Amino acid sequence: MHNKTFMAVAVGLGLVALSTLSACGPTDGDGGEGVSAQSKTVTLVSHDSWAVSKSVLADFEKTSGYRVKVLKDGDAGQAVNKAVLTKDNPQGDVFFGVDNTLLSRALDNGLFQPYEAKGLDQVGGAFQLDAEKHRVTPIDFGDICVNYDKAYFTEHKLTPPASFDDLIKPAYKNLLVTENASTSSPGLGFLLGTAAKYGDGGWEGYWTKLKANGVKVVDGWEQAYNEEFSGSAGGKKAGADRPLVVSYASSPPAEVIYGDPKPTTAPTGVAAGTCFRQVEFAGLLSNAHNSKGGKALIDFLIGKEFQEDMPLNMFVYPVRTGAQVPAEFTQYGPQAKDPETLAPAKIAEHRDDWVKSWTSLVLK
Asked: pLDDT (tens digit, 9 = 90+) per residue, 317-355?
């Protein structure tokens, strides 16, 4: 969610990312096979957080007959912008990782061709934000929320914040670090959450108060979470001093799963009243060289095997009804019950102006 570069949530994730690269399958190449080899290769373009278990990808390659080549293109914003610039001669066949905060940019630029995926009837209607045209297929969702360092609040005998309103109280002065809304997916999601909560006439006043209360802004998620946040494994090693960070509702289970030694309870918690729902999509690129393979790949992405494999690889929730979620997710990082949301049309209409206003208000 990813973009979020969520694969770096803890030291162990770097190893997962390396193993993922080895699972991407053979790439195109002349190799004497020419056109037939190219038609049997399907290329997925994504952000850096893409990950899948080697065995799951191998199953798709075996049953479909296609080899999968993966191209990672930075965070979600960078990847979407590059895909738009290269849409007439795309790098691949399928793009994964455009989310609801950037969806209008992709659709308005004609990035995708319509395709109604097999198995879409198993995906909840609330996730199908382009249901009339099927230019994108929902794949996963997650919640961008403020995380807190449990040990800090216990030691200081302070109740952790539970809402946006709490974050501007004097008790939490100089405790929060967030990401730049113009360069980071979670940073933008947090801004949109405040816009949804306080409306067009109220979000700027809220950020004025948040700035006065000492919020720190850094470029991206990895810096915020692994260098500035005292509750993360990376932050502890870095001597971080901010016990509040904008991250994900799925960050606490990641801290448990990749902890060394593995803790029995999550060292971090989630402020449930600060969440914004993020949905990620895949789409068949408009000028895909292998449309048939691209369609098969999208079908696979909403299939049960991939959907159940996804949570522990990308730390997001499946959109497929009935897909099992790992016990660690429900135990340490349950999804937000009432997250803030904004209609894609509303985001499309205001996103650029909101980011511009936010930049001049918070960074200057």
From this structure: 999 999 999 998 888 877 888 999 998 889 999 999 999
What are the counts of helices (DSSP H) followed by strands (DSSP E) for the chain?
Answer: 17, 11
What single-letter DSSP state applies at residue 225? I
What is the rounded CA–CA span in Å between residue 187 and residue 75? 12
| Residue range 193-202, pLDDT digits in tens | 999 999 999 9
- 64-68: Cβ within 8 A, 24+ apart: 64/293, 64/296, 64/297, 64/300, 65/40, 66/40, 66/41, 66/42, 66/290, 66/293, 66/296, 66/297, 67/25, 67/26, 67/40, 67/41, 67/42, 68/24, 68/25, 68/41, 68/42, 68/43, 68/44, 68/297
**What is residue 224's DSSP assignment?**
I
Match 């929320």 to its residue by tokens: 145
CA dist., res. 287 & res. 110, Å (int): 10
Report helix, strand or coil for 237: helix
Q: How far is CA 49 from the centre of its chain?
A: 8
Indicate the SS3 state at residue 50: coil
Residue 268 CA, chain-centre distance (Å), reads: 19
Among 103, 147, 163, 124, CA closest to 6: 147
Cα 77 from Cα 4, distance rounded (Å): 10
**Distance, CA of 240 to chain centre:** 24
Q: How far is Cα 92 from Cα 317, in angstroms, rounded to an integer?
A: 25
Looking at residue 202, what DSSP letter applies? Answer: T
Report, as an integer, the average pLDDT of 246-260: 93
Q: Which H/E stretch holds residue 282?
A: strand 276-285
pLDDT of residue 36: 57
Letter string b/e over residues 71-108, b meaning 16 or more CB atoms within 10 A of that residue's CB: bbbebbbebbbbbeebbeebbbbbbbbbbbbbbbbbbe
Check residue 229 and report its DSSP letter: B
The candidate with the shortest Cα–Cα distance to 184, out of 287, 279, 76, 283, is: 76
The DSSP code sequence of 139-179 is EEEEEEEEEEEHHHHHHTT-PPP-BHHHHTSGGGTT-EEEE
Task: Look up residue 204 and give its two tokens.
Answer: 């700027």
